[in-house]
């Protein structure tokens, strides 16, 4: 018996699992990189709150420091710090992909695009460290 | 008897099956054999009904892309011995509807590809008598990498964005659009900008980067898309600052 095949035959579509990103390190790394933006936002909010407390006077700043000493906040800040490191490093490493700069007919090597980013990061960190630690 | 390796192959008949299943075959494990040789062995010697696409056997035609142990691979360039002692699981390319066994339906890609106008667009064609459009080696070098695409669709199988949002134009189509954008002979950049800068175009890409990792021709579609994001943003700023005609 011959069977008739409709045209176009209906293909079978594989459903994608909600947890597709757990199966492969590259996908998990991507999701972690996306997630890190939430923790970057948290640091921004925290800094704004700190500035607000500074404006509020010594009492308000004391309260804010009390808030920072809360173990939950300390834990959150430690986690955020590592996520921000991850965010910054992956961002700087990806920068050469997006920037195809050509000089003298040749594409500038990736390292020469990534390095200035790291250098600027280092300079900014040294300035902040100097401001915080000088007294 | 020569050494054998188990080949686990997806079987699916649209007339008979509701869902695909896996069938295992024992094939000889030979040093010089690629996964495609093993599939051809099954087709010639064991089960002639096994369906899969292939043509050139040398990484040029882009027909034999399949998932090998979960990774998108050209089966003509994937050696069996790398998977010894096995088993080797061969499945149809991810993110496409399966038509039969290892064959997937790729019309969606072909439609998207033609939408981004991957050809040289000229405002005014030169008459034949004036000769070819000339190009220096440096000008060729700017887009050469992106022109290596063989439409094998491994990048689509690696792209979770395409899997989750089938409207996304996808890595190869966007890289090929960029290939023509960067061609010194092309004058179609602004025509493509409107198509590429839509949400389903470059902005659909979240830069997972796996398309570049799996590309057998080192095309770097992820790079092409990010570079175009930069161009599209510059064009957008230009159109904000010069609304009377900033678009090039």
Q: What does this molecule look like?
A:
With 135 residues, chain A is an all-alpha fold. Chain A has a domain of 80 residues: Up-down Bundle (3 helical TM bundles of succinate and fumarate reductases), CATH 1.20.1300. Chain A contains four helices and two strands, in the order H-H-H-E-E-H. A two-stranded antiparallel ribbon of chain A has the order 1-2. Chain A is flat, with a radius of gyration of 24 Å. The termini of chain A are far apart. In chain B, 34% of the residues lie in helices and 13% in strands. In chain B, helix 2 runs parallel beside helix 6 and helix 6 packs across helix 9. In chain B, strand 3 and strand 4 form a beta hairpin. Chain B has two domains: 101 residues, Ubiquitin-like (UB roll) (Roll), CATH 3.10.20.30; 135 residues, Alpha-helical ferredoxin (Fumarate Reductase Iron-sulfur Protein, Chain B, domain 2, Orthogonal Bundle). Chain B has 248 residues and is an alpha+beta fold. The mean pLDDT of chain B is 93. Classes of the chains: A mainly alpha (135), B alpha+beta (248). The interface between A and B is medium-sized, with 24 and 37 residues.
**Spatial strand order of the main sheet of chain A:** 1-2
What's the level 1 CATH class of the domain at 1-80 in chain A? Mainly Alpha
Order of SSEs of chain B, N→C? EEHEEEEEHHHHHHHH
Average the pLDDT over all residues of chain B and give the rounded result: 93
List key phrases describing it.
heterodimer, A: 135 residues, mainly alpha, 3 helical TM bundles of succinate and fumarate reductases, two-stranded antiparallel ribbon, 4 helices, B: 248 residues, alpha+beta, Ubiquitin-like (UB roll), Fumarate Reductase Iron-sulfur Protein, Chain B, domain 2, 5-stranded mixed β-sheet, 7 strands, 13% strand
Question: What is this structure, in a nutshell?
Answer:
Chain A has 135 residues and is mostly helical.
Question: How would you summarize the topology of this molecule?
Answer:
The complex is a heterodimer of chains A (about 140) and B (about 250).
Chain A: H1 25-55, H2 58-69, H3 71-98, E1 102-103, E2 106-107, H4 110-133
Antiparallel strand pairs in A: 1-2
Chain B: E1 4-11, E2 21-28, H1 35-46, E3 65-68, E4 71-74, E5 88-91, E6 98-100, E7 103-104, H2 107-115, H3 137-144, H4 154-158, H5 160-164, H6 171-181, H7 189-196, H8 210-214, H9 221-241
Parallel strand pairs in B: 1-5
Antiparallel strand pairs in B: 1-2, 3-4, 3-5, 6-7
């Amino acid at each position: 018996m011959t069977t008739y095949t409709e045209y176009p035959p209906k293909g079978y579509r594989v459903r994608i699992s909600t947890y597709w990103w757990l199966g492969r390190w590259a996908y998990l790394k991507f999701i972690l990189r996306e997630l890190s933006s939430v923790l970057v936002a948290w640091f921004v909010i925290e800094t704004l709150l700190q500035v607000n407390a500074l404006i509020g006077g010594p009492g308000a700043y004391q309260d804010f420091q009390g808030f920072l000493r809360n173990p939950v906040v300390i834990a959150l800040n430690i986690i955020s710090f590592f996520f921000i490191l991850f965010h910054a490093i992956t961002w700087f490493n990806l920068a050469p992909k997006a920037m195809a700069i050509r000089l003298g007919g040749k594409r500038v090597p990736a390292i020469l695009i990534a390095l200035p980013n790291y250098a600027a990061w280092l300079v900014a960190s040294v300035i902040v460290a100097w401001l915080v630690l000088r007294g | 008897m020569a050494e054998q390796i188990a080949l686990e192959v997806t079987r699916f008949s649209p007339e008979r099956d509701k869902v695909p299943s896996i069938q295992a075959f024992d094939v000889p494990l030979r040093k010089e054999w690629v996964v495609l040789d093993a599939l051809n062995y099954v087709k010639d010697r064991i089960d002639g009904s096994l369906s899969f696409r292939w043509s050139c056997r040398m990484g040029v035609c882009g027909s034999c892309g399949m998932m090998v142990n979960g990774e998108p691979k050209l089966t003509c360039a994937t050696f069996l011995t790398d998977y010894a002692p096995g088993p080797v699981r061969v499945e149809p390319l991810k993110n496409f509807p399966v038509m039969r066994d290892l064959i997937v339906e790729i019309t969606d890609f072909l439609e998207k590809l033609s939408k981004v106008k991957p050809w040289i667009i000229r405002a005014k064609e030169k008459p034949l008598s004036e000769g070819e459009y000339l190009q220096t080696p440096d000008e060729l070098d700017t887009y050469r990498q992106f022109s290596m695409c063989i439409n094998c669709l491994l990048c689509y199988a690696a792209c979770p964005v395409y899997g989750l949002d089938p409207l996304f134009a996808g890595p190869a189509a966007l890289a090929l659009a960029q290939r023509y954008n960067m061609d010194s002979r092309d004058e179609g950049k602004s025509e493509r900008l409107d198509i590429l800068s839509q949400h389903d175009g470059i902005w659909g890409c979240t830069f997972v980067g796996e398309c570049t990792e799996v590309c057998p021709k080192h095309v770097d579609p992820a790079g092409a898309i990010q570079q175009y994001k930069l161009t599209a943003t510059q064009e957008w700023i230009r159109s904000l600052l010069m609304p009377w005609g900033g678009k090039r």
